[in-house]
Design a protein that fits this description.
heteropentamer; A alpha+beta (573); B alpha/beta (315); C mainly alpha (340); D alpha/beta (313); E mainly alpha (294); A: alpha+beta; seven-stranded mixed beta sheet; 15 helices; 21 strands; 20% strand; globular; C: 340 residues; two-stranded antiparallel ribbon; 14 helices; binds adenosine-5'-triphosphate; binds magnesium ion
Chain lengths: 573, 315, 340, 313, 294
């Protein structure tokens, strides 16, 4: 492209980049940028979200599912060096051997026994079968560049242009301000259609909306409902509202235990009773929550922890199993189970020992959760259950709801990847904290034999359809047993300027996501409106106007003051 | 009554040097006697007065009241302060602007837990010439004239029925036309109650007005003392002579040059010699610059600390 | 008197300044030591397990957590951690950020420039404008100029910084009605910042709104302080003397009242630097200004233990240092205390 | 040279008015030294400040102040600035406050020279040195700051400053109050010597009659904003207030005052609440009935004039 | 005699009121303040915490001012007017209590630092100076983050970081008062530490303390709103949390100016009222300023 007529697209984000070193970075925004810079073994298909070839052209699995062989594509790094299986092997081996390199994606190689390379052939040996092998989140790094790094854990990777194998190359990063990416001409799928992609950081979400409306940025993802609403009515802006990757649910302390099955925490005993959990489930008007809390920009959850975006894996309740808002039914369940109402209308345990008074743990500083809490409190009151809200800052929240189990009901949620294994695993027995109260990563303290066996089954099942069936059974189990109660699936809300972005392909192509999606498709296919010039003219005009105004004001003030002074000089002291 | 012996008071001065504000003073105030302490600014008059009240600890020497040495424990200090009271220069400042006259006068009785507070206060006010006392009870200092304020301060002291009054420049900030009244009050109290008083002043006219005895202080020492008539009409010490000579009426002025001396650097020999008109005129003796003078004893007779004045016959 | 006497008299004075500066520096060091110790214990009070907080919901095995804990030195007993912390801090090592995995000092180093630029400019403007206006207002209390200035500053003084910033952003960056949004919505420079003078202009344009916000709130305080300081001087006899000498009113103010009134303000000006720093946290958050305040705010939100500790330490220590400097500067400026 | 004609000064305090000076008329001949006495609050300083229009804005000035025939009160500001200090200068009461604490005294002495364009640069320096020597201070003191000087030295600096523009008139407002006895004597000697040498007119204000009598040719006594007596400094006072004031400072050695302090009964008047008739009547030892109604003006008797009905007799 | 005292007090107050009345700004501040405080106090007679409950919002979301909702509604359809009214209770409570806390600490330490000359005073002064230079907002932010942002901790965080200036002021006043001759006189009468501190120093610093507390309340309210805005306050509805809400819910971009302006203007108005009052009190009660004005 001619200089000065570069096609530039600017994306606004409300999180700054934590580290340009993929071995260390954990933030979502950084992950999105890595997707654009580096190749992965596979990439979700733009239509079906099934794993499809990326750097790995093809792959095979041994019958026992323990050995995977990937054929690495004949392509070049952005600096012209060929990409080989050795690069991938080096990347994985580095993570397996260097603790410092585990920070970013450590768990992804946890199950690896060994990784070896032979020309373009990469062989990974696993400890146990793993169906999610094809959703490996590790970017493949150029060995010839990175092997020179002495201590990965201290390396900030601020070297530009970066050497990568994705559609873009990072050429500049200003901390807390922006990352500038240029099209990678050597990209194996072909050069992207625009010349430059800028990822611009806003600390203040309101300012980013202003920026989009003004044209300071061209696209912004991960909007919250009110900001999304405020884009309405702007002719230049497309409001992008689709199914999201996330499920929001309640986590219920149904008798938390440690990994050696010792009780932990101070959960309310009534919640151990599945009937109470079901009754609570009946007392939640999910549609109302969607309307009031999410401004209608979500889908009520008639399923479990996997959102309908992932058609293959989504399970929806039906028939008798299906729980719909019904306070009478909820009351009846509780009455039948022997939780009698006291004189104050609050139910007590059947033995009369405790009132059904639950705490609801939410985060500080999250109005959505506040609001949710108020609605739940209202409905639960109708069924004789008192709910008190307990606001916790995020570290305390994580500790109380994830390790020490000092909660009754807590807000929870998970953004699901194209392969749902990660979220399924958060409800495994092994994820409960150890006897010493450490570690874990459970989202529910759940430990259910049925669920466990189903999990093992889907892990080994390499046939996608069969595996999906097993996974749906797991979701059903969660739905019925209710250690977690799914509330709704928030929509993915984005906005972009159509006077700047000529076309952009979501992922999946049918009603998919833009910024928030998996893979690089939207930003690879992005096309800019061609009349593009640098926007400097405009901003300079503003500047000049501003300076001129300032000068006028100063001159006027100066004139006024000197006049006053001259006047005063001979008047009075 | 009140007697100071070889009193010395030091202050930490600049640069680690110590300022000897009072440098060896013997002074006594007899019963029913008014003693004036005169001297120029910074010579240590106020420090001496404060030390006599126990507000400042002497670094050497001692103070005795009625023969018993002053003890600095809280209790005995308090007891001592019922006997010896203070009147300060600035009556406005000596009264808390937020306390009424009654509160101000009753403060002493309250601290000492005297019974029948109100009659004590009324009595003290009446004695200080504020009659009828009730009319003044609820007034605030700013509603009084300067002279009335000073009377209130005196009444506050009288409320404790002290034996000795120490007055530091009691009329210096009062209007000329009012000062006579206050001085007359002091004289009257002496006559009626037998109160002793130490009046600190730089005004020789004042001393002449009311004092029985005068002590002239220079740089932390008393350089001449004796009966008022003797000292003021027939001064012996060159310093006293100079002080008297600069009074407007006096015929021949001896204006001393230089600044009031610095208590952190006391000259050797006679401490007055750098400014002494006799030394300047060359009539001084060698001793003036080299031999320190002895401290004058606390007698009531006229005495002078000067190498050039032949010792007065003390017999 | 001869000049040797003069030298004799001046020597201890100069000596006095040195000693004064040394005392002040000693005091500052003591304060810094207190800050360091306090910081350590303050941050140990933080609820929750920092390592878990770091995991941010990512699933980590107990072994990984242990590893992380060991890496951060959190597995050792508190006294040992304390000694380690002290030693580290004394070596000017503020530890490694949990979140960014990089030395806190590096992170600070990357952002301190923009903060200095913003707060420095704001401070210079606020001080000069505030002092100038305060001096004029205080010179004729009750005049129209005084009334207007005082009113403005009282309003500004009452306005929460962040709110003002938001309003300015909405009005002058977004544009409302006839007012065009001529100022950028974020950051300290454009992505395509041109070189040379145009680049300076670019940064200048970005700085207008955040700077205005900071100035507005801070300058009011300087104005009020200077005003009352000048009012204190106006009644002084030396002012009457100066007028009696036949000086013009303005000259009396400029040559006599203001220099004297400035002296007590010096300390206050510096004392308020802490306020500017505090204001910078909100302003940087609103205008996405990539500075220390933003880093600190981010550290609190994560929460990033070491980063929070490091930035807090740095901010506090620099304020202490500034204040100490102010004391010494005051000492040099005021001839009365200089040789006292 | 200086004529005050019915000068009045009234301070406005919110709604209240404080008549500080109520019709003062006097004349000061060239080369003459006039003393103005009176106790605190009688309006002495107000008179002094009114002479050069230095009063605060809350003061309303009436009457005329003729300086060499020109009315100071109606002068243009430019002219007034020119007159200030070059025709008449002031030595203030509190020398510690009359000097700017943060400027070197040399600069402060030179300032009027520069303002009135009489000298600048090296010439001004020379003049400053000269002036300092005139008041008996070493020239190097020009580089000192006020706080490095003692009270007496500062008062000398004030005097040097007053002399800077060689004015015909010096107004000295309590130049020795708050100074020590000996220092006071030094300063008075200096003033006496300077007016004798330069032929300057002097208006000296003090509350101490004896000090004034010592320096001045004529004495004026103020009470409650009025002149109550004016006459040569030698000789007996006629007004009972002046007499009482004189008696308040006893002569050492005078047996009459030994152990007999004398003063006036009653309190000084509050300018906001002056009694009708003669303002001094409530305290007057010899008050007559008519004093309650007649507001006595200055009555001339021989070489002095006094505002007392007894004087006319 | 006590009736005489009472009459005296009344007259003293009358004089004070006369002086105060002359400060028009101060009086208007006092009026605003009075209205705000009275409204906050009587709020429970008319409304309850229910108005801040999201579920009970009756209006449309972010509806502009109308007859039903004179100041519009927020993101949940709650009346901004009612929330402002109810929220004033939290804002004022935090303002007053934080100021009170800071005043108590400041007074005790200030008097102690001024009264005890030896090392006690020196140590207190050192500590005060140390706290004084700590950037108070930053410190409060850290404290609130560490202690969790309940109303009580916010009060503590603000109180603990704002006392040093009070202590400084009180110390300076104490020194000034103790330099007065009446302290010397009192000592000569036999007074002890306690007597001096309570009978002389405290009554003399009390008026200034009142003025400075008034100013302190103002800054506490601003600090609370800033802390709320920065998200460390898990408070009940206050003006600060409302502003935070307006920010979180995109009121600015949605053009819901009432939701941003009203709480902000309330803060400005009340803070300004406190400031005006405080300044007027200062001029009326501070003898130094008073003589200047005279
Ligand atoms: N608290 C103190 N600390 C240090 N030095 C002091 C203190 N009090 C007095 N001095 C010094 O002691 C010396 C004597 O002071 P003092 O006040 O007793 O003098 P004085 O004769 O009362 O003077 P004046 O007539 O001015 O009141 C002075 O040089 C003074 O500077
Ligand atoms: N700026 C002012 N505002 C109001 N009243 C004033 C002002 N200056 C002086 N006064 C009043 O005017 C009267 C005369 O004051 P002035 O200063 O002239 O008296 P003075 O004779 O110089 O007294 P002193 O001997 O105390 O200096 C006094 O009652 C005083 O309170
Ligand atoms: Mg004294
Ligand atoms: Mg005067």
């Amino acid at each position: 492209a001619e200089p000065g007529h570069k096609k530039v697209i600017k994306i606004g984000v409300t999180q700054s980049v934590d580290s340009m070193n993929p071995f260390l970075a954990v933030r979502l925004v950084t992950g999105s940028i890595q997707r654009l810079i580096y190749g992965f073994l596979t990439v979700p298909d733009s239509k079906t979200l099934q794993p499809s070839p990326d750097l790995a052209e093809s792959w095979t699995t041994s019958p026992d599912g323990l050995t995977w062989t990937f054929k690495i594509r004949q392509a070049k790094w952005s600096d012209g060096q060929p990409i080989t299986a050795d690069d991938a092997a080096w990347t994985f081996n580095k993570m397996m051997t260097d603790d410092g390199a585990k920070t970013g994606n450590g768990p992804a190689v946890e199950n690896f026994r060994s990784v070896s390379a032979n020309g373009q052939e990469l062989t990974i040996k696993l400890k146990t079968p793993q169906a999610s092998m094809l959703d490996n989140p590790v970017p493949i790094m150029p060995k010839h560049v990175w092997e020179k790094v002495k201590d990965i854990s201290k390396y900030d990777a601020e070297v530009y242009p970066t050497v990568g194998s994705g559609p873009y190359v990072a050429v500049e990063h200003k901390k807390d301000q922006f990352v500038r990416l240029e099209a990678n001409p050597a990209y194996w799928r072909g050069r992207p259609k625009i010349d430059e992609l800028q990822v611009i950081f806003y600390d203040n979400p309101a300012a980013s909306i202003v920026g989009l409306k003004k044209g300071d940025i061209d696209l912004i993802g991960r909007l919250n409902p009110p900001d999304f609403e405020s884009l309405k009515g702007d002719d230049n802006i497309v409001q992008w509202n689709t199914q999201g990757r996330r499920a929001a649910y309640l986590q219920i302390n149904h008798g938390a235990t440690t990994s050696d099955n010792k009780p932990i925490g101070d959960g309310h005993p009534a919640l151990k009773d599945p009937r109470v959990r079901t009754a609570l489930h009946y007392a939640i008007d999910k549609q109302k929550l969607v309307d009031e809390v999410q401004g209608g920009l979500a889908k009520p959850a008639d399923g479990s922890i996997i959102p309908p975006l992932y058609k293959d894996f989504f399970w929806e309740a039906s028939g008798a199993e299906k729980v719909t808002f019904d306070l009478a039914k909820a009351n009846k369940i509780l009455d039948d189970a022997g939780y009698k109402r006291g004189p104050d209308g609050v139910r007590t345990m059947p033995d009369g020992s405790r009132k059904l008074q639950f705490r609801f743990s939410i985060h500080t500083d999250t109005p959505i959760e506040d609001k949710l809490a108020e609605y739940l409190t209202g409905w639960f009151k109708e069924i004789g259950v008192t709910l008190t809200t307990k606001r916790l800052d995020s570290s305390k929240f994580t500790e109380e709801t994830g390790t020490t189990a000092l909660f009754d009901i807590a807000i929870s949620g998970w953004s699901v990847n194209p392969d749902p294994e990660e979220v399924l695993a958060t409800h495994l027995c092994s994820r409960r904290p150890t006897a010493t109260g450490e570690g874990g990563g459970t989202e529910s303290f759940y430990c259910d034999p049925t669920y466990e066996s189903l999990y093992l089954q889907q892990q080994k099942e390499l046939d996608r359809t069969k595996r999906a069936d097993v996974i749906k059974k797991m979701e059903e189990r969660l739905y019925v047993d209710a250690p977690v109660i799914a509330l709704y699936y928030p929509n993915d809300l984005e906005g972009y300027r159509k006077d700047r972005i000529a076309s952009i392909t979501p992922i999946p192509e049918d009603k998919g996501l833009l910024y928030g999606g998996s893979g690089y498709w939207p930003f690879y296919t992005l096309e800019a409106v061609s009349t593009d010039t640098k926007t400097d003219g405009g901003s300079n005009a503003g500047l000049i106007a501003g300076i001129a105004a300032g000068v006028v004001v100063l001159a006027a003030a100066g004139f006024f003051l000197t006049r006053r002074r001259r006047g005063a000089a001979d008047e009075r002291e | 009554m009140l007697e100071a012996t070889d009193l010395q008071v030091e202050f930490p001065g600049r640069g680690g040097r110590r300022a000897r504000a009072v440098d060896g003073v013997n002074l006594s105030v007899g019963a029913g006697e008014i003693v004036a302490l005169v001297g120029e600014s910074g010579c240590g008059k106020t420090t001496l007065a404060r030390t006599l009240l126990g507000l400042e600890r002497p670094s050497a020497g001692r103070i005795a009241y009625d023969g018993t040495p002053l003890n600095y424990s809280t209790r005995s200090l308090r007891a001592f302060r019922r006997q010896v009271q203070l009147v300060l220069q600035d009556p406005m400042g000596s009264l808390n602007p937020r306390h009424t006259v009654y509160d101000a006068v009753a403060e002493g009785p309250r601290i000492h837990g005297l019974p029948d507070e109100e009659s004590v206060v009324a009595g003290a006010l009446a004695r200080a010439g504020l009659r009828p006392p009730e009319r003044f009870f609820q007034r605030y200092p700013h509603e009084l004239s300067g002279g009335q304020r000073q009377r209130v301060v005196i009444a506050g002291a009288l409320a404790l029925e002290p034996k000795v009054l120490i007055a530091d420049e009691p009329v210096a900030s009062l209007d000329a036309s009012v000062r006579g009244e206050i001085l007359a009050l002091l004289l009257k109290l002496r006559d009626e109650l037998g109160l002793s008083a130490l009046v600190v002043t730089h005004d020789l006219g004042l001393a002449w007005n009311i004092a029985d005895r005068v002590a002239v202080m220079y740089l932390g020492r008393i350089v001449e003392s004796g009966r008022t008539e003797d000292v003021l009409t027939n001064p012996q010490h060159p310093y006293t002579k100079a002080l008297l000579s600069v009074l407007p009426e006096s015929p021949a002025r001896i204006v001393l040059t230089g600044e009031p001396p610095d208590p952190t650097r006391i000259p050797t020999g006679c401490r007055f010699h750098p400014r002494c008109q006799l030394v300047a005129a060359g009539t001084g003796a060698d001793a003036c610059t080299t031999i320190p003078l002895p401290i004058l004893p606390a007698t009531t007779d006229t005495q002078v600390a000067c190498h050039l004045v032949p010792a007065v016959d003390n017999s | 008197m001869s000049s040797t006497v003069e030298e004799l008299e001046q020597a201890p004075a100069r000596h006095g300044l040195l000693r004064y500066a040394a005392t002040k520096a000693g005091g500052a060091l003591l304060s810094i030591a207190m800050v360091i110790v306090a910081t350590f214990f303050l941050f140990r009070l933080l609820p929750g397990d920092p390592v878990r907080a770091l995991a941010q919901g990512r699933n980590m095995t107990p072994e990984q957590l242990d590893l992380e804990r060991a890496r951060l030195g959190l597995d050792k007993p508190v006294p040992e951690q304390f000694l380690h912390f002290i030693g580290q801090t004394l070596r000017l090592d503020l530890g490694v950020s949990y979140e960014y995995k990089r030395p806190v000092l590096d992170l600070i180093g990357e952002r301190i420039g923009s903060t200095l630029l913003l707060t420095g400019t704001a401070l210079v403007i606020a001080v000069s404008l505030g002092l100038w206006q305060g001096a004029r207002a205080g010179w004729k209390p009750g005049s129209r100029f005084d009334k207007i200035s005082t009113a403005i500053s009282l309003v500004l003084w009452s306005v929460p910084t962040f709110w003002l910033g938001l309003l300015l952003l909405m009005v002058f960056a977004a544009g409302i009605g006839p007012i065009p949004g001529i100022f950028p919505t974020r950051g300290s420079s454009s992505v395509d910042k041109p070189d040379g003078f145009a680049g300076v202009l670019d940064v200048g344009q970005h700085m207008v709104l955040p700077c205005l916000t900071l100035v507005a709130v801070v300058y009011a305080q300087y104005l009020l302080v200077m005003r009352s300081s000048v009012i204190d001087e106006v009644g002084q006899d030396y002012i009457t003397t100066a007028r009696a000498k036949g000086l013009r009113d303005d000259d009396v103010r400029r040559r006599h009242a203001v220099p004297n009134a400035l002296l007590p303000t010096v300390t206050l000006v510096f004392m308020r630097i802490g306020f500017v720093v505090g204001g910078a946290v909100t302003v940087e958050a609103i205008f996405s200004w990539p500075g220390l305040g933003q880093l600190f705010y981010e550290a609190i939100r994560v929460p990033d233990f070491t980063l929070m500790q490091g930035t807090f330490l740095l901010i506090t220590v620099s304020v202490i240092v500034m204040n100490t400097l102010a004391d010494v500067v005051y000492h040099v400026l005021d001839p009365r205390v200089r040789s006292a | 040279m200086l004529t005050l004609d019915e000068l009045s000064v009234t301070y406005r305090l919110g709604a209240a008015e404080v008549p500080a000076v109520r019709g003062v008329s006097l004349e000061l001949a060239s080369g003459e030294a006039l003393g103005l006495a009176g106790e605190s609050g009688s309006g002495k300083s107000s008179v002094a400040l009114a002479l050069l229009r230095l009063l605060p804005r809350s003061a309303v000035v009436g009457g005329r102040v003729l300086l060499d025939g020109e009315d100071v009160l109606t002068m243009k500001w430019g002219r007034l600035r020119a007159v200030r200090w070059s025709s008449a200068s002031i030595v203030f009461q509190g020398a510690q406050h009359g000097l700017n604490p943060v400027r070197r005294i040399g600069d402060q002495i030179a300032e009027p020279l520069q303002v009135h364009k009489l000298a600048s640069g090296a010439a001004a320096d020379r003049r400053v040195r000269e002036l300092l020597e005139q008041v008996g201070l070493p020239a190097w003191r020009a580089r000192s700051y006020p706080h490095e000087l003692s009270g007496g030295q500062r008062q000398r600096v004030m005097i040097a400053m007053a002399l800077a523009c060689a004015p015909q008139l010096i107004i000295a407002d309590e130049p020795t109050t708050a100074l020590d006895l000996m220092v006071q004597a030094q300063v008075l000697t200096l003033i006496r010597q300077l007016i004798a040498e330069h032929g300057i007119s002097l208006l000296m204000i003090s509350h101490d009659l004896s000090v004034l009598a010592d320096v001045c040719d004529r004495l004026a006594v103020m009470y409650a904003g009025r002149l109550v007596e004016i006459g040569p400094s030698s000789g007996e006072f006629k007004h009972p207030y002046s007499q009482a004031l004189a008696a308040a400072f006893p002569t050492v050695g005078d047996p009459a005052s030994r152990l007999a302090p004398r003063g006036l009964a009653g309190d000084p008047p509050d300018p906001q609440r002056l009694p009708g008739g003669c303002a001094f009547r409530p305290r007057c030892p010899v008050a007559l009935e008519e004093c309650a109604s007649t507001d006595v003006q200055l009555l001339v008797s021989g070489d002095r004039a006094a505002a007392c009905v007894l004087v006319g007799e | 005699m006590s009736s005489v005292v009472w009459v005296r007090r009344k007259r003293a107050f009358g004089k004070f009121w006369n002086d105060f009345r002359k400060h028009r700004a101060g009086v208007s501040g006092l009026v605003i303040l009075g209205v705000a405080v009275v409204l906050a106090l009587i709020a429970p007679l008319f409304i309850d915490a229910g108005v801040t409950n999201v579920v009970s919002g009756t209006g449309a979301k972010l509806a502009p001012p109308s007859l039903d909702h004179p100041l519009g509604t927020d993101e949940s359809g709650r009346s901004v007017l009612l929330m402002i009214w109810w929220g004033s209770r939290t804002s004022l409570l935090i303002g007053f209590l934080a100021a009170l806390l800071s005043m108590v600490i400041g007074t005790v330490l200030g008097i102690a630092a001024g009264h005890f000359r030896g090392w006690t005073g020196a140590v207190i002064l050192r500590v005060t100076d140390w706290f004084l230079v700590l950037p108070s907002l930053v410190t409060a932010l850290v404290l609130a983050a560490i202690l969790g942002g309940s109303t009580a901790t916010i009060i503590v965080a603000i109180g603990v970081t704002s006392w040093p200036s009070t202590a400084r002021l009180i110390r300076a006043q104490t020194l000034a008062v103790e330099a007065r001759p009446y302290i010397e006189r009192s000592l000569a009468l036999g007074a002890g530490h306690w007597h001096i501190a309570t009978r002389h120093v405290l009554p003399n610093v009390a008026p200034l303390l009142l003025a400075s507390t008034t100013l302190e309340v103002a800054s506490a309210i601003v600090t609370e709103s800033t802390l709320a805005f920065l998200g460390v306050s898990a408070n009940k509805t206050s003006w600060g949390t409302m502003l935070r809400g307006s920010y979180d819910w995109g009121a600015a971009t949605a053009g819901a100016w009432w939701y941003i302006l009203v709480p902000g203007l309330c803060i400005v108005a009340v803070v300004m009222a406190f400031t005006l009052c405080g300044r007027a009190l200062e001029t009326v009660l501070n003898p130094r300023l008073r003589t200047r004005e005279a």
